[in-house]
Protein: LLM class flavin-dependent oxidoreductase
Amino acid sequence: MTAPANLTTLRVRRFGVGLYTGQKDGGADYADAAPLAVAAEEAGFDSFWVTEHHGLPDGYLPSPLVLAAALSSVTSRIALGTGVLLAPLHHPVRLAEDAAVVDRLSSGRLLLGLGIGYAEHEYRNFGVDPATRGARLDALVTALRDAWTGEPFDSPALGLSGVRVTPTPTGHLPVWIGGYAPNAVRRAGLLADGHLVGKGERHIVTAASEQLAQVRDPADPGFTRAVNVACVLDTGDGAGDAARRAFARQQRVYERMQAGREVYAGLVPDPAGTDPAGTDPAGTGDGLAAGGIDRYIQASGDPDQVTATLLGLLDDLAGWANVHLVLRFLFPDPDLDAQLRRVRTFGEQVLPALRAHDTREALA
Structure:
C-alpha cells in the first residue's frame, strides 16, 4: 500500500522516555520511577515507558502494570506505556482487568505494549509452553478487545467461555505489539493499534515499514509506528561515559538470557565471566556480542549529533501518519540525580529541535 501525497494534515509525531527497568546496583529501587516520570512530564515528553522480565538477579521489573498504576498518581498528562508486557505469561482475564484499572486510574493514559519474549526460564516459571506463544498472543489481542466491551465473551483458544470483565476502559485502549520477526510485524499490522520496534536501527525500521505496508495503510492515523532508540548524550561532563557503563551492565544481563540465540545483533555468545565495563573507562562492554556497547546505541554524541540522528529516523518514517519515538536513555544507574539530569538535558537540548522539525514538516 502507498500513502497519499497529502499526509501533512494527518501527521502525528510524539516522543517518549524509556525504558524504566528498576535495575540498580545493590538491588531494585522502584521508587526511582516516580520522580523520573514526573521529570519526563515536566520536560515536555509525551510518554514514559516501563518493561518486564522475571527472575533476574538485578531486580529487573516484573510487574509493569503495577508500576504504571503507581505512576498514574504522580503524573497528570504523560502517557504510560508498557514496552513490552510479556503477554503469553499473563492470564487473559487478569490482564484485561488490570489494564482497564490502570487505564481508569490514569484517565485513559495507558499504552498497552505487548510482546512474546524470548527467555526460556520465564516460560518455565509460569508453566507456559513457549511453542504456543505466538498463537496465544493472537488470541489474546482479540480477547482483550472483546473483554473491554463489558459484555460476556468466549475465547476457545484461551479456554474462556461466558467471561465478563469489569470495569471497562475509559475509551479505546491502544494495544501495540512489539517484535522483529516477519510474523510478529505482520501480527501487529493485522491485529494491533501500533507496532513497536525494540531497536531503532534504520535497516530494522525500514524492513518493518516494508512488511507493515503490505497489511496496513501508512496513511492510517489510527496505527502508530513506534521505535525505541537507544541514546547517549555526550555533554562534556562525563555523563555520556556513565550512561555507557550503565547500559553495558544492563546489556550483559540481556545477553546471558539470549546466549546461543539469533537476535537482532546476531548470534549471542555467553558473556559469563566477562565484565561489560572491563578496563575500558567508557564501559564499552568487553564480552558483549558484536564488539561492545556502542553497537547497541543508535544515537550518540553531542546534542546536535543526537538530534540529527533522530531527525534522520523521522525522515525514514515520513510516509507514516503516526510516529512515536521512545528515546531510551534511562539505563540502570545507582545515582538517581544523574538520571534526572539526563531527562532534563534531553528535554532542553534535543526535544525542542524534534518538535520544531515536526512543525515545519506539518506545515510543508
